[in-house]
Each structure stands twice: as structure tokens, then as C-alpha cells.
Design goal:
The chain is mainly alpha-helical. The chain has helices at residues 14-28, 35-42, 46-52, 64-76, 84-95, 106-115, 120-142, 149-170, 177-185, 188-192. The longest helix has 23 residues, at 120-142. The relative contact order is 0.11.
């Protein structure tokens, strides 16, 4: 374990853990990489990892709580005179903009999340969290409850449209994610139609 001049363990970061983990996932596969492996590669103890991520399954999702907080801000910042479908459309596209120099890359992150069987059950929980953000926004805009039919419909359809764009993006190295999301999310108006507010 790395130590400082005073003999204390050197602090790590979410980013350092993610980078070390993704290197191991690429070399060994997700299922064959243990938390002990990641701890060794990061230079910290296993217990320290749990201060940053609750489980190995959480590492591919990064700091998802913060990204969802940002998603809420994007939705709340949409002009109130925008039709509902357009507000959700714009926020989803903006939410999925990531810097090209991100490490691990957004493409590597999403490929791991979407193609790793061991992550499927955990991903269902994360998708539910993502849908809840949209449902809350739609409920607020329409004077309904988040669990009502319309907010849930918009949330589920939005996730399906985004996932369709991601699958197309991962299958084509030359594709632009933002363009695919923009085109996919445009279908939302067909689901909301003239009833959008």
C-alpha cells in the first residue's frame, strides 16, 4: 500500500478506482476481477474501496448519484413553455454528453454495462433510478403523481429510446451518440402527441 511521508495511506479517488478497475475488466473480464484485485491495483485496502463504491457492480456506473442530480437540474432548467416531449428530449440528449477524453471512455463504460450478464440485475436498479427522475419531472409538469400512468409511460419510453440509440452507437464505431439520441428521442412526440403540456 502506498503511504505518505507520515506513514498514512495515500488517499485514492473515484476516478482512480474506476481507471484501475476498467483496466482489469479489459484484461481479465468483469466476472474474473475481484474487489481485492481492484484494491491492489489502486494501492489501497479493500475496506477503502467500500468508502467509494458499495460493490463491484457500482464501479461501472461511476458516481451515478451525482449524474442523476445533474439530470434533475437539466430537466428543471428546461423552459416552462417548451412542450413536455421537447423538454425531456433536450434533457436526455444533454445528460448523455460526455467529454471525449473521459477515462474510462463513455463507450467502454456503456459497452461493459450493456453487454455484461453479471451486471444485468444491478443495471435494472440503476435504470429504475434514471426513470424516476423523468417520472418526477413529468409529474410536476402535468400535476400528477410520479407513479401515475403518464409519468411512468414517458419514463419507460424515454429509457427504451435511449437504449436503442446506445445499442446502435456501440455497434457502429463511426456513429455519433448525440445524433442517434437526438433522432431516437424525437420519437417521443409520437407517444405524447398533442396532449403534451
Amino acid at each position: 500500500m502506498r503511504t505518505s511521508a507520515r506513514g498514512r495511506p495515500v488517499a485514492t479517488s473515484h476516478a482512480a478506482i474506476e481507471q484501475a478497475a476498467f483496466t482489469l475488466f479489459t484484461e481479465r473480464g468483469f466476472a474474473s476481477t475481484t474487489l481485492d484485485d481492484i484494491a491492489r491495483a489502486t494501492g489501497v485496502g479493500r475496506r477503502t474501496l467500500f468508502r467509494y463504491f458499495e460493490s463491484k457492480n457500482d464501479i461501472p456506473w461511476g458516481r451515478f448519484d451525482l449524474t442523476l442530480a445533474g439530470f434533475r437540474e437539466l430537466l428543471a432548467g428546461q423552459p416552462r413553455d417548451l412542450p413536455l416531449h421537447e423538454a425531456v428530449h433536450r434533457a436526455v440528449v444533454a445528460f448523455n454528453r460526455f467529454p471525449g477524453d473521459a477515462r474510462p471512455s463513455h463507450r467502454d463504460r456503456m459497452r461493459l454495462i450493456l453487454t455484461t450478464p453479471e451486471l444485468e440485475a444491478h443495471s435494472v436498479l440503476r435504470y429504475a433510478d434514471w426513470r424516476a427522475v423523468i417520472a418526477e419531472y413529468v409529474a410536476e409538469r402535468t400535476g400528477t403523481a410520479p407513479g401515475d400512468l403518464r409519468p411512468q409511460l414517458v419514463a419507460h419510453v424515454s429509457l427504451a429510446l435511449a437504449m436503442t440509440a446506445y445499442e446502435a452507437w456501440l455497434s457502429d464505431a463511426d456513429a455519433e451518440l448525440e445524433d442517434l439520441l437526438d433522432r431516437s428521442m424525437a420519437a417521443l412526440r409520437d407517444h405524447l402527441g398533442a396532449a403534451s403540456s
